[in-house]
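SUBJECT: A protein chain and its fold
Encoding: whole-number codes for local backbone shapes
Chain under study, with its fold:
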Amino acid sequence: MSKSVYDKITIKGLEVFANHGVYPEENRLGQKFVVNAVLYVDTRAAGLSDDLDLSVNYGTVCHQITDFLTANTYKLIERVAEELARHILINNPLVHEIDVEIEKPGAPIGLPLETVSVKIHRGWHDVAIALGSNMGDSKKFLDDAVEKVGQLPDTKVIKVATYITTKPYGGVEQDDFLNSAMTIRTMLTPTELLDRLHDIEREAGRERIIHWGPRTLDLDILLYDDLVMDTEDLTIPHIEMHLRDFVLKPLAEIAPWLRHPVYGKTVAQMLSELK
């Protein structure tokens, strides 16, 4: 879901004395920072039940912010904001997304200044990935890939589909493929995730020699939230996913409701039409 459909818990003006800055005296002497945060959550269950366990305890989050800023030292407030957002998201499962603003009222620039701040938005992203192999021990390559994806930073494997044997796609004569799909939640950006998937492919001995040719391991990003992007290195949604039954079959097993953000059809609908 996008942040527009979540409820918000707002923390405004939390003052923390901490040691962050480029200059040595900032790290040694410290200064005041002001933190503003918006937590994107679903408060419906807590609102109906009056049960704190079903909500995010903003008092606890305030202490987490204070403890984190005082326990660490960074040169840039950009880094402070980045690491703080990650810390809150990891330690509060009910928080789906977060806005973090770090204000630095005492910024040493030698000019009259009320404050300077950095504000970022971070969150968990729902991603679908296709897996394939037709060289060597294909099952082991897929098993290892699932394990390694789950070990990526700030990434959780949600579901993995049954492995299926399929005929090659693209007209190159080669052995049958073992295919599957998986869904994950990650804080990695699309390009960061792509780079990590390419690392996993290389570790499996993947060589990009023949287009649509045999491979030890193939990992493709199919969907990333409802993002539509097209760059030299990455197209999301995957440009041919709606044409490939070896992609749609396993994905329909674990997430038939996922909707293609361009065609507006669910995975189940695309598979049905392809048949």
